[in-house]
Amino acid sequence: MNANTLTLRRRSFLSNLGALALPLTINKLYAASNVQKPNVLFVLTDQWRYSAFSHADNGDALVKTPCIDQFASEGTRWRRSYSTTPVCTPERATLVTGRYAHQHGAMQNNRMLPPGNRCLAEIFRQAGYATHYTGKTHYDGEGRYDIIDPEGNTGWIPGDSAREWRRRGFQTYQGFNRGHQYITTNPSDVAMFDDDGRVMTEVLNRYEPEFQRELAEDFIRAHRTRPWLCYLSWGPPHTPYNEVPSAYKTYTVTAADRRSNVSGNTGASNLALYFAQCMALDDQFGQLMQFLENEGLKDNTLVVFTSDHGDMHYSHNLTDKSKPEEESVRVPLIMRLPGTTKPGHVSEVPIGGVDVMPTLLGLCGLPVPKTCAGVNKANSARGSSMPEIDSIYCVHNKPWRAVVTDRYKLILRDSTAPLTINSVNDLYDLVADPYELNNLKDDPAHATIKQQLFDRILQWISETDDPYPGAVTLSKFMYTN
């Protein structure tokens, strides 16, 4: 494929963005009234833990994120923000449905989000927004690009229900379902696909997040005359840590740099590269924010920045994600909509991934569907304390359940029935003990709070029809591919 062909394909995509608009009758409905509706830029990262920002309390000392720090100073960030299910597929499905994993059905990695779920982009699309996805989805089964071409055909036909429900409301798409590669040098390894399923070899020898940022900017430029939702999903700082431009490989991690719950310096080289990925993404995010300002779009764009889960990096001698410990389950969440969110506000309201969809719908003045299990916490983004919100819940299929307040975390790891107060495995005071080194589950001074939190989690299990301590039968949902 030559450069001219690639240029034509890029131009063809930009042209087709306009051609995929909603029917004229709907265009007429929103043309007059929706001009001032806020645009939405949703930036999702993969495996970026809460502590890996220079603005974070009890943060990783080495990491520097000046662009995101500046962004946080202009909007609201949540101190107690948690992944509802700290694994890629379940949490990504939660972010676009506002439902817990045992409700939406994508209970573990590489499971398909079943039909019948009311998804974020569908609501925005029906409200007259142009909707676009760039990057990794990872809620469309085991295939790498099934979301592009589910029937084995070329292209996407608007109105074709077999494709339509798998788009989950996104009219245009550039990306892939699952996998991670950030600097690809072999054409046969390219796994980015454009809207008609063609391989985007333009990404060759590029840093993938930079390429995806440019694609998102192209979409935004093409839709200046109507409100838009652009969902940009970056792969880093998830492995492979080493696939990052060499200019960012400036970190050296010593034992003194590690978190207080890490023994020794195991995995130091990987952590240094993880920080390098964070710094590289911070730079890309800064360029994206500058683009919005240069285009005159900053003041009418709600920007959401978050991650699907964190990364342990040997805290408590654990690795990766899927754990209830802070490094795995606590994630960044920052929202900025000038004139609506409170600049520089650090909210103490507990918030989970399940709350993100209803909250951003609330900020945009759109109705929250009854299918959402999460809570609209838009008032906390505006600066209110919301004292009625005192806890959130985190889950991981069969292994564990947790309840988190603005101060405490209680964890159940006992999968045997019936659940009793003796099923409580962990209780931490996250204010006094942010590294979770002092388990208070047997401390008489905390017996009352232990009972209160245990009662709450039992109530939540009942109210949400959570089968815990049993496990959801994955075959119940029938979708793997």
TrEMBL record:
Q: Where is the Sulfatase N-terminal domain?
A: 38-365
Its keywords, alphabetically, are: Hydrolase, Signal
One matching Pfam family is Sulfatase
Q: Where is the signal peptide?
A: 1-31
Concerning InterPro entries, the annotation shows: Alkaline_phosphatase_core_sf, Sulfatase, Sulfatase_N
What SUPFAM superfamilies has UniProt attached to this entry? Alkaline phosphatase-like
Q: Which GO terms fall under molecular function for this chain's record?
A: arylsulfatase activity
Sequence similarity: Belongs to the sulfatase family.
Q: Which PANTHER family match?
A: ARYLSULFATASE FAMILY MEMBER, ENDO-4-O-SULFATASE
Q: What is this protein called?
A: Arylsulfatase
Q: From which source organism is this entry? A: Pontiella desulfatans
